[in-house]
Amino acid sequence: MQRAPHHRSRKSSPGRFGTERFSTRRPTAAVLLAGALTASLLGGAAEARPAPERAPTTLSLPSPPGGENVKVLVFHASATEESPVVNAGIEAIESIGLTGPAAGRFKTEATDDGAVFTDTDRLGSYHTVVFLTGGGDVLDPEQEAGLEAYVKAGGGFLGIHEAARTEPYSTWFTGLIGARPTGAASGVQRATVEVGDRIHPATKNLPLEWKRPDRWFNWANNPSGTVHTVARVRENTYRPGTGAHGADHPVSWCRDYDGGRSFYTAMGGTADAYSETDFRDHLRGALQWTSRISAADCKATIDANYRAERVTQPNQPGRQDQIGEPHGLATAPGGRVLYIGRGGGAGGAPVVTDWNDPEIGKGLGQIHVYDPATRQVTLAGALTVFGNKGGGGELVKVEEGLLGIELDPAFETNGWLYLHYTPHAGLDRDRRIAERRVSRFTLTPATGKLDLASEKVLLKWPVQVHSCCHAGGGMAFDSKGNLYIATGDTNSSGFSDGYSGNNPVPTYKGVSFADARRTAGNTNNLNGKILRIHPEPDGTATLPEGNLFTGREQAEGGGKTRGEIYVMGVRNPSRISIDRKTDVLHAAWVGPDASAPSTTWGPAKYESFSVITKPGNYGWPYCMGNNQPYRDRNLPDPAKPLGWYDCAAPKNESPHNDGLVNLPPVTGSNIWYSPQGGAPDYPRDANGVPSYRASEATYLLPWLKGGGQAAMDGPVYRYDPRGGGTERWPRYWDGKWFVGDFYDADNPRHAVLTDPRTMASGGLPTHAESLKKIIPIGAGGIRNLMDWKFAPDGSLYVLDYGRGFFNSDAQSALWRVTYQGGAPTPAAKDLVRRAS
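Given the sequence above, the corresponding structure tokens read:
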């Protein structure tokens, strides 16, 4: 490493700290220098460049794409006394050039002389400029213009910690850095850094949760969405002080800026930081990108790089020609999108609710097809369903109907699709029992229409429809051809004050409709479950090995099980998904209605998301969240609370149970949230029972909050480097799980990372990225998210339910969200490669 002599650049005092900062700048200086620097930084062989105006420096001019060494300038001038951090930083960067994966690639020169930025030949010899400054106004107008010209010509910039306080009067430098601190950094505090970008060379090798001491800045304006944030600091692990940001506190980010590349990290505020192996790896990867050794995507989370477009039109008056009451979608390998309407009619259509009328609840469950090639919608077919029974109270409305759609793995050749629905023809009006079924149909290739006569019933079972609600509906295939089917607990919410749905009364003609121990908590009932079957070519179904029960268990009192059950103890799982890389099931279910916890009955309403790697019991109606129990109740007086459920060994002692009494232990959820916040937790007594006192709650996932809430599971995105279109979502999102809520407000609409080591046992996500500006919320956006799936071209389709309930309206729509940001940078032709 060569280090220039220590002669600090000083400017004359007039205008140095005043508003005249820009008035003395020569507006054409950057433009005049940019042409020469472009040839130096991005040109071809040396002989093709204009002759230098001054004698060259001792460093050879880089000539990409060849070149053995990358040259790094470390600039460390300061308007105040230099920090001991500077020497540690210079030595660390020098060491990066000599050791590790970049060994022999970097040569480093350090200087505090701003004149380097007006020496075209010398400045053009560097692949990256590192600002390791102590802050303040350290460049005169010509020097700042030289830095600007360097970046415009394609140069790389790495700012470290105090660099964010450098050139405080320059709006261009503010853009280069990305954000300005509100003041000095905090004292040294140990905190947890969430490393969300697992692709960028600066972060891909770092821990998911990186615990380290540093001095932490707060920002005048949060840069997330205008820069690509690669790491965040978790504020609940230290004291952020005045100006804290909450869940989204960026600490390292990058962006393509004004022709060049800029990476900034707010870490590195202590000399000790530079001796950390992980921090050096962080800097090494940043230098690899800014120096053009490696390409990286620094545009993937910039909001402006995404476009959300409504692709269906409002229905014609009184018709549902574009969309029914939105309830689910599936994307076909060839690009078409098939989406279903549950059964509610067009807004204002008549609804029959009189049980004496044979037409009660009769509706049409529609299948529409959107073809992106023609941008046209066709109505492929409709089933006559029990599902148009309007709104109103628990004994009036209904959530049955056409509930789920999934395509056969060979859909493009056989035209098979699977529908989860409640036929009107199977309705028992006397007992108010309906039949739920999963059937295979054929979409005729020649006509694009659903062949109703092709139906093959794979599975059917009874559901009570005297009282609303919770039908579930989602379906998904794994790579072995197993079909997962989500079913709701068909239980009323109105008889337990919004806590555990375990009230043994009332009943209708002997069938309980307020006791989910009869359904979700019952090993002999298919409701409140995720089922797993294997469809066969002849239209039947078999049971794969490894479900939760075999169907042959006999136990206390002659109890039974159903072999189709893969997961029990879920309340209303509207959406499920399978990670196509790992075959892991992901699911979400809607919780009860209590707005606050109760020291008598248990937790408030929790929406739940879980990563499910094996069969299990997920608790409802016994436990929720991270195994927080409810209070039991039973005859003769259900208003009297009994003991707390044991989540490790729950018992079903309901008078309506016809399955096993002793149930599998409960597995906690990975994500749960209430109106008060994300992942509420409480101190527990010696028996493990939480206090449930609101004042004692801690919130383990501060990035989310509920209110009106209804969890909607989304896909795990998998980037396909061999396929997809130019508008596909970038590789940054690979492996991230999309979790959302029907309502936009404060509820989640995020992409999260889970730790493979802990996710199966209910481990919390390690990182969450907000999608609320990419998948827009608000009056003009997607306010009521009903389903979302990625298409083979890498674009995201989203169903917006609309603004009413139990019908479709003018806002019911299918949307497509695409990426417009372009490829990673630098382009392959501009990467620096070792000389051959």
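The domain at 2-180+222-231+252-302 is CATH 3.40.50 (Rossmann fold). Try to locate this feature in the token string yourself.
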